[in-house]
Amino acid sequence: MRLDKFLKVSRIIKRRTVAKEIADKGRISINGRVAKSSSDVAIGDTLVIVFGNKTLTVKVAALNELTKKEQAGEMYTVVDESYKESY
Description:
- Associates with stalled 50S ribosomal subunits. Binds to RqcH, 23S rRNA and the P-site tRNA. Does not require RqcH for association with 50S subunits.
- The protein contains two helices and five strands, in the order ααβββββ.
- The chain is 18% helix and 30% strand.
- It has a five-stranded antiparallel beta sheet with strand order 2-1-3-4-5.
- The protein is of the alpha+beta class.
């Protein structure tokens, strides 16, 4: 499954166009490698996503083409969520 579609279906990022923009700016990595929006995501991959001052690390648990809002959280597990402090 494409990275931008996974981020949208899993509801980590609400819109696919936003997921594409973030990925194409080099702010997402898959297993330690910088990823583009068209990169393939597989079960067991570790994604690191940088949102401004927040860094989210998740592990892919499932790949579903469609999912309901309540089940979206089952597609990944949060490994780490950290914030940078700004002064």
